[in-house]
Fold CASP-like protein.
Amino acid sequence: MEGDSTTINITETPKERKGKAPLLATPPASSSIKPVVQKAPKRGYKRGLAILDVVLRIAGIAAALGAAIAMASTEETLPFFTQFFQFQAQYDDLPAFTFFVIANSITAAYLAVSIPISIVCIVRPHLVAPRIILIFLDTVMVALTTAAAGGAASIVYLAHNGNSDANWPAICQQFSDFCQEVSGAVVASFLTVVVLMVLVVLSAFSL
C-alpha cells in the first residue's frame, strides 16, 4: 500500500475563473483626448480704430486750418473815416489773435504729418510704438490749441461785453463783421481741441 499514489483532479468552477480576470483597466483610447487650441487675439477692432483715427485727423486738419485762415483774413474798416483818422480792426492788432493763427497753423501741419504714422497703424495694428508717439504728440497739440483758443476766446468776450471796471468798451457794436468772423474762428479751434482729445483716447484704447 505504500507504493500506491492517489491522483486527485481539481476542476475550476466558472466563478473561480472569473476571479482570475486582470485587475488593470485598459487605458482610454488616444482619440478621446482633444488638444487645446489657443485662439489668437482678434485685432480687427484695432484696425477699425486706426481707420477712424485717420478720418478724425483729416477732420482736425480742416477745423484747424479753417480757424487759422478765418482769423488771419479777419479785417474790417468802419465806413466813417477822414483823411487823418481811420477806424480799422485786424487780427494782428492783438497778440492773442496772432498766437491763435500760429498755434492753429502748427496743429494743422502736425495733423497732416501724423497721417502716415496713423496709416502704419492700419497696416500693422499690433505695433505699439507708433501709438505711443501719437499719444504724446497729440497731447502736446491739445495743450497748444487749448491755450490759443482760450486766449482768443477771452478777447472775443471782451469785444462783445467789454469791461466797465477797466473802462474797456464793447467794440462789436461797431465792428460786427469782425467779431462774427473771430467768433467763428474760435469755435472752429475748440472743435479741433475736441478732435485731438478723441484721438488721444482712441490711441490709448488701441494699446
Summary: The beta strands are 75-77, 88-90. Helices lie at 14-19, 44-72, 95-123, 129-161, 176-206.
